[in-house]
């Protein structure tokens, strides 16, 4: 039986460690890197959109100034957008 996170298990994390939290939630997926960078994926229901947020460190300071935030309105392209974001910052 297919799990909600199966499509994301196929991502090339470029050395990151992925955590699956809860499907279609504000806290959905986190990809952590040894240097402190974090790629956070969440769904904001009131906006009917997913957001991929990249922070240089998982600290209050890091979250105050995200490196990038990508809005994704179509879940069918979410895995591709996450992969693009990983490649952009981890190559």
Explain what the structure shows.
The protein has 91 residues and is α+β, with helices and mostly antiparallel strands. It has one domain. The protein is 24% helix and 30% strand. The chain contains three helices and five strands. A hairpin with a 4-residue loop joins strand 3 and strand 4. The model has no long low-confidence stretch (mean pLDDT 97).
Which SSEs are present, and which pair or pack?
Elements lengths: L5 H4 L7 E4 L8 E4 L5 E7 L4 E7 L4 H5 L3 E5 L5 H13 L1
Antiparallel strand pairs: 1-2, 2-3, 3-4, 4-5
Task: Name some characteristics of this structure.
91 residues, alpha+beta, five-stranded antiparallel beta sheet, 3 helices, 5 strands, 24% helix
């Amino acid at each position: 039986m297919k799990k909600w996170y199966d499509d994301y298990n196929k991502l090339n994390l470029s050395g990151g460690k992925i955590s699956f939290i809860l499907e279609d939630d504000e806290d959905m997926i986190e990809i952590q890197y040894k240097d402190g960078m974090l790629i956070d994926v969440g769904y904001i229901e009131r906006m009917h959109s997913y957001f991929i947020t990249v922070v240089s460190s998982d600290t209050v300071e890091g979250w105050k100034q995200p490196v990038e935030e990508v809005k994704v309105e179509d879940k069918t392209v979410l895995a591709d957008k996450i992969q693009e974001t990983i490649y952009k910052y981890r190559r």
